[in-house]
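Predict the 3D structure for this chain.
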Amino acid sequence: MIRLLLVVAFILALVRVVRTLLRPRVPAPPPGAWDPWAVLGVPRGASRDEITRAHREQMKRYHPDRVADLGPELQQLAHEKTVALQRAYDELTRG
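Done. Predicted structure below.
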């Protein structure tokens, strides 16, 4: 029984390693360049589901309707952040 559990654990670990190795690698952008991964707060090579989930979470925080009762400076900041989030999401989910 223990041998079977060890074999299953080994196979699961092997599958995880293979999936990590097969994940497409995205090169890091030069310093100071636009980085949609950083804007959404997801690791490079994240799945489409992870990107969508991060986009939705960030939009919940920064959507202009949620900050309508705050001052104009914060509303402008939320608008800029929303535009950046949408741009990053569009770039990462295109194609």
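The chain has a mean pLDDT of 87.
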